[in-house]
Amino acid sequence: MKLNELRNGVCAVIAEKTGSQMVQSCNHAFNLGAHLVELRLDFLEEEFSIAEVLKNISGPTLVTIRRKSDGGLWEKDEHSRIKILQLAQYSGAHAIDVEADCFHHFPANGDCLRILSYHNFTQTPDDISLLHKAFEAHRPELVKIACFANNNSDSVRILDLYQHAKLPLIAFCMGTIGFPSRILALAKKQSPWMYTNFSDNLVNAPGIPIFKDVHSIYDIKNLSHETKVFGVVGDPIGHSLSPAIHNACYKELGYNGVYLPFHLSATDFFAAIEAYQSIPVMGYSVTIPHKEKAYQFATTSSDLVKEIGAANTLVKTSNGFHAENTDATGIIAAIKNKLGESLDKREALILGAGGVSRAAVFALKKAGCNVKVCNRSAERAEKLASDAGVATIPWNQRHDCKSGLLVNCTSVGMHPNENDSPWDSNYFTKDHIAFDTVYNPIETRFLRDAAQAGAIVIDGVEMFVCQAAAQFNLFTSFNAPLDVMRKTVLEKLRRNKI
Length: 498
Ligand code: NAP
What we know:
By secondary structure, the chain is α/β, with parallel strands linked by helices. 37% of the residues lie in helices and 21% in strands. It contains 17 helices and 20 strands. β2, α2 and β3 (61-64) form a beta-alpha-beta unit. α8 (242-253) runs antiparallel to α17, α12 crosses α16 (460-476) and α16 packs across α17 (482-496). The chain is elongated and about 80 Å long. NADP nicotinamide-adenine-dinucleotide phosphate binds next to α12, α13 and α16.
């Protein structure tokens, strides 16, 4: 197997219980676009002939038998494990994966690459670069280093290994924090392939992406050193829809970019953004709990960000990062798209006093609305109202508002509490315009009740798309294909039911 022919390959990891299932899954993976399959023989529960298995697989194979002590399932004796791997090496496997302590059992055989691998499921050791050097001294054809990331600086340290590599290298971090390093190793470094999970059985490979997700979200084949990197930072980040929609738009426009989910804890924010400057990451969408920190981190900020005191967008400039708040502009765009007219002098009641409420209050006030805030906890409502110079309404008097814009910025009605609503259905009128910022579910109880009373309704998906489109424009200078964004969000929400 020629490594340079495999640049940006997708390796499907196959973990099946029988030899015939193994063969079937490998060939299925090739049909779906895998470039290489890793046969995890430690998952097999029956006797098998490795030569027979390899003979029936239609593309390049990598054979691995991971011991229990290394995070695999192999509990039988070491002698038989080495024997099977040696057999694989001479029976047509394109690569074998072996650990340092047994590497001497596998002299070079020109046809089969020897991958010398190191896995650490708890941390990225401080001396990882020394370990890397020691591995290269064994002269394998390829070194693989996979360590668990406890923070984002671990990922950057792992990616730094490529700079000093004398032999081909696959190095990445495991865990959700480590996920971006798997893609960045392909785009910005010279990793020949990335590992993806093809089987339901695979265990103990934290953060490994699912094969079909990688294919549907990322344009792996076209990643290159020139690819511009963007992403979303948050904690948690696993359910974010942003990678799917931004990457779908890059594909649609043929834009050379990749958008990644960065899992950043509250304490890791500043160090992580600094560390990723070396990639560099050109822009971030910012979500809970980092919006205030994003504002503090930015060198420059829009007037709206300064007023709100929080940003959901950071764009790299020649002197640091510029902060924007597209939640605020997205709220206005979503309302204007529906009403098609100026918001000047409209009455607007904001339900809630959290992060999104802040964006809504300042944006609607700026658009000319007569804004009032109403929140379950009066103290938070008072604070927001006094910051923005608007009035408050006590929570138990909210239904006195018989007309105008009602904006739900509370989390009430969000999945899984889909039967809840912050507004009693009896108090909706046809003179209300009900806007729910909650987008999961798409049609909330709040919106259903409002529509039944004859009110105009605006859903949270529209706001989500408008804020993402504004970010897309700030990141790429291109207008976002709104239909692609909408379609991707709706598909994801309907399919995932997250
Ligand atoms: P947040 O800062 O945590 O604020 C939550 C708000 O909900 C607070 O005002 C809280 O009131 C109120 N609340 C929670 N449970 C309540 C209950 N049982 N009864 C009455 N009020 C309740 O959250 P956030 O960041 O502002 O997000 C709010 C919503 O916006 C989320 O549901 C999210 O889905 C949505 N969102 C939408 C978009 C979009 O693009 N469409 C973007 C971001 C967020 P207290 O102060 O009394 O606790």
